[in-house]
Specification:
The chain is of the alpha+beta class. 25% of the residues lie in helices and 25% in strands. The chain is built from 14 helices and 28 strands. Helix 12 packs antiparallel against helix 14. The radius of gyration is 26 Å and the shape is globular.
Length: 689
């Protein structure tokens, strides 16, 4: 059992949850079970917890260790300290630490925590499990002052109304009715406060170290305009995609309704109207009802969005208060670039800058696939996004945290889940088999053998899991318990000729899943050698079996399936990537890549660029990164991208996200391949002090 952080305080809850039994929401994707429904009256629940306390005049520093479920905004004396914690399974839960030196008061102070329990079972939150509440310890100049206990008071925040669900049920539209507000809860004002309930049977175990949390800062739009000269319709452009929330400060008559629209782009026929019915299936339209309070209303949206534009439509007799429209941007603490890429190639520079902005924008509490529709961590995305973010920022703690989130998911399936944490059960075979590569890539950067040693048992557990589908020759056939992905969306698989229904039939033998299977063994063997452990046996036999099943001697290429006459880019890139392609195939595969280019999805482009580098064709690496075609980063830029799209273009996927960092492979290629081998193309300059 790893070391654990132990709170002196106890877990406290809103009384609404005090009698609810935690729900086990976990199961294998294709083995559903009966799960208790979420009580309707707990959905979209916002609860404030407060504790007033006194400090002497000599106290210089307050340290607050705190966690909450699902999520919280933490205030001291009305000042926002931060949000969190990062999502995690209850048995390995996260917490944050805040060190406060400013704003302390000699005399009465107030700690206020706004806790949100969403209640939906999705990728974004570990929710829908009846676990709600918070825990905290407070220290004054290093001495324990108090922890959460029955002296904490709580009350719900009825002004947060549940609107329709966004994306894949990952968020509610936040329709605020400030007439229902019970006062400034961050300051402990108003009535309705009741003692919090103590709960000791929820099963939380906390990680030994606090999570770094998020850096929050308010920004102003770079451009504003009153639409059609109407001073009650304000359009805002923040210049590029951001991940965060709007913060609006208004005064108006009681019952006045403000319409709030956000979007990643504007309508083609009206550049001052955000496309709030977004391509990614989020509808960012919310309605806020004002209270009529003479001091005005502070509209604080809780949950984050991914957007660039906003439009605020005010009713009559409504006016802005000072600093009335800003955005609270959320970014990973430590997510500041530690390197700069320098190149005279303007197109390469533009692509690298696009990748950098996407990584900094999207990575927050987790390394998500996107900040709008799904907002959750995907294992395959981690292969690309995690490594690119590590190279860009040097943030080793975030890389390790993400790996641990996925190893924790092996409690559900030893073959690892595709989404972790979260209460949405999804499994993708290709992604699980990339986990050894993810651990090895992290080790190559940090040279942390403890990281290798801790993760090797999970890697071996993944290999053992897939052996249930092993044929006598060592290849995998009929991997039916997890999705066989190849690439996504499906129309970017380069015509991969093997049908892949979910689940695949027992006789399904195909290239890509077996290429990842062979690669997983090769990388695992590399890890074992680095740890001075005996080599993994049977790899040479496995490679021979792969070649016997898929290699076409006449063409010098790898087929998608045995006897198949189609040779997808994916089927040929992976043997080169993992270093087991037959020597006589290399020229043919090289020519195939030159012919097909990026005939793949943006995620798989990582494997293509790396294969080109392993073939020592750095000119081709540069050519693919900067090419101008419908399958290119330049195509995104031509379509006005400020962050990476989920596919090469807006037209290539029906629910495309316009901020999707899994396309950040050029950062990896520049760092690993171009800078060391072609410094005339690009160099990496350290920004570390």
């Amino acid at each position: 059992m790893p070391d654990r952080h132990r709170f002196q305080g106890v877990w406290i809850q809103n009384p609404r949850f005090a009698e609810l039994t935690p729900i086990d929401v976990f199961h294998k994707e294709h083995s559903p079970k009966a799960i208790a429904p979420v009580p309707e009256d707990t959905l979209n629940n916002h609860t404030w917890f407060i504790r007033k306390f006194n400090l002497g005049p000599d106290v210089k520093t307050l340290k607050i260790d705190i966690s909450a479920d699902d999520y919280a905004r933490v205030y001291l004396n009305g000042h926002l300290l931060g949000v969190g914690p990062a999502q995690a399974y209850a048995e390995d839960y996260q917490y944050n630490t805040y060190r406060v030196t400013d704003g302390l008061v000699a005399g009465e102070n107030i700690l206020a925590v706004h806790v949100f329990y969403q209640g939906l079972r999705n990728r974004a939150y570990q929710s829908g499990d009846n676990r709600e509440g918070m825990i905290a310890d407070v220290f004054a100049d290093g001495t324990f002052l108090f922890g959460t206990d029955p002296q904490f008071l709580c009350r719900e925040a009825p002004e947060y109304l549940a609107g329709y669900k966004q994306g894949y049920d990952t968020a509610f539209a936040e329709n605020l009715d400030m007439r229902k507000s019970l006062g400034n809860s961050a300051q402990g004002e108003g009535s309705g406060w009741v003692p919090a309930c103590v709960r000791e049977d929820l099963g939380y175990l906390f990680r030994s170290m606090p999570d770094p949390g998020l850096d929050l800062h308010e920004i102003n739009p770079i451009r504003t305009s009153f639409v059609g000269g109407n001073d009650r319709v304000l359009f805002m452009d923040f210049g590029e995609e951001i991940s965060g929330t709007l913060h609006l400060r208004l005064h108006g008559p009681a019952g006045s309704v403000v319409r709030v629209l956000c979007g990643e782009e504007t309508e083609e026929t009206d550049y001052e109207m955000p496309r709030y019915k977004m391509r990614c299936n989020c509808t960012y339209e919310e309605f806020c009802t004002l209270s009529g309070n003479p001091a005005g209303d502070d509209l604080v949206f809780f949950d984050s969005k991914g957007f660039r534009y906003a439009r605020i439509e005010l009713p009559e007799h409504t006016e802005w208060l000072p600093k009335g429209y800003t955005a609270e941007v959320r970014r990973r603490t430590g997510g500041v670039p530690c390197v700069r890429f320098e190149t005279d190639n303007r197109d390469l520079s533009a692509v690298l800058r696009l990748c950098e902005k996407t990584l900094v924008c999207a990575v927050g509490d987790s390394i998500p696939d996107c900040p709008q529709r799904e907002k959750g961590q995907y294992l395959g995305d981690f292969t690309v996004t995690g490594l690119a973010y590590l190279y860009l920022t040097g943030d080793w703690a975030t890389y390790k945290k993400t790996a641990r989130d996925f190893t924790d998911s092996t409690k559900i399936c030893p073959g690892m889940m595709a989404v972790a944490p979260g209460s949405f059960m999804q499994e993708i075979a290709d992604y699980s088999l990339q986990f050894p590569l993810q651990i090895w890539n992290g080790y190559r950067y940090a040279k942390d053998k403890t990281f290798l040693r801790e993760n090797l048992p999970y890697i071996e557990g993944i290999l053992n899991h897939f052996r249930q589908f092993e044929r006598p020759d060592g290849l995998l056939q009929g991997v039916s318990d997890k999705w066989n992905l190849v690439d996504w969306p499906a129309n970017l698989r380069d015509g991969y000729a093997v049908p892949l229904p979910k689940p695949v039939p027992p006789d399904c033998l195909h290239n890509v899943i077996n290429a990842f299977w062979v690669g997983a063994h090769i990388v695992t063997d590399r890890i074992r050698k680095e740890l001075d452990l005996p080599e993994l046996t049977g790899i040479h036999k496995l490679v021979r079996s792969f070649n016997a099943a898929f290699f076409d001697e006449e063409k010098g290429l790898y087929r998608d399936g045995p006897g198949c006459d189609h040779y997808a880019l994916h089927s040929n890139v992976l043997p080169v990537f993992f270093g087991f392609a037959k020597p006589e195939s290399l020229d043919s595969i090289h020519a195939l890549i030159r012919e097909k280019g990026l005939a793949c999805g943006i995620y798989f482009a990582y494997f293509v660029l790396k294969a080109c580098a392993l073939l020592h064709d750095y000119d081709l690496v540069l050519e693919l990164i900067t090419q101008k075609s419908d399958h290119s980063w330049m195509h995104m830029l031509d379509q006005g991208a400020t962050t990476l799209f989920e596919a090469w273009g807006k037209e290539q996927k029906g629910n495309v996200s316009l901020c999707h960092p899994w396309g950040s492979a050029p950062i990896i290629a520049a760092y690993e391949s171009l800078a060391p081998n072609r410094p005339d193309i690009v160099s990496v300059v350290s920004l570390k002090k």
